[in-house]
Amino acid sequence: MHATQQVVEMAADGIGGLVNGISPDWNVFGKIGTKAKIIVGVVMAGAILFLLGSAVVGAVHIRVGNQQHNSMETKKGQTMVASSLLGLFAVASMATLFTIVYGFGI
């Protein structure tokens, strides 16, 4: 099937077909219930929002530290931003990491 044909079929399905096409595939964890998937999604969304908020607070520390010529405050902000973005990456790729670890276990 050509790429243009796939795009035409996705457009014909509407937005529902597009969203279903990019939704996560639970792979080996597909047998957990719908409520469990919702709970996992809510917990991951909460963690992502917390980490984004922490990154914003870190950026504020950097800005305040630069304005006051306080290198300790700037360093604290840099550490907060870096750790928040690293945590954000880890949470966002959690499903992939679990699938890889489970695959190695088999």
Structure description:
This protein has helices at 3-13, 15-22, 34-67, 71-92, 94-105. The mean pLDDT is 76. Helix 1 packs across helix 2 (15-22). It is mostly helical and 106 residues long. The radius of gyration is 20 Å and the shape is elongated.
What tags apply to this protein structure?
mainly alpha, 0% strand
Quick recap of the structure?
The protein has 106 residues and is mainly alpha-helical.
Element layout with pairings:
Blueprint: H1 3-13, H2 15-22, H3 34-67, H4 71-92, H5 94-105
Helix pairs in contact: 1-2, 3-4
Give helix and strand order, one letter per element, not per position.
HHHHH
Portion of residues within helices: over 70%
Spatial separation of the terminal alpha carbons: 33 Å
Structural class: mainly alpha
Please state roughly what percent of the residues sit in beta strands, choosing from under 5%, 5-15%, 15-25%, 25-35%, 35-45% or over 45%.
under 5%
CA-atom Rg in angstroms: 20 Å
Q: Which stretches of 5+ consecutive residues score pLDDT under 50?
A: none
Described by the principal axes of the CA atoms, the overall outline is: elongated
Overall average residue pLDDT: 76
| Total DSSP E strands | 0
Please report the number of helical segments.
Answer: 5
**Main sheet characteristics:** none
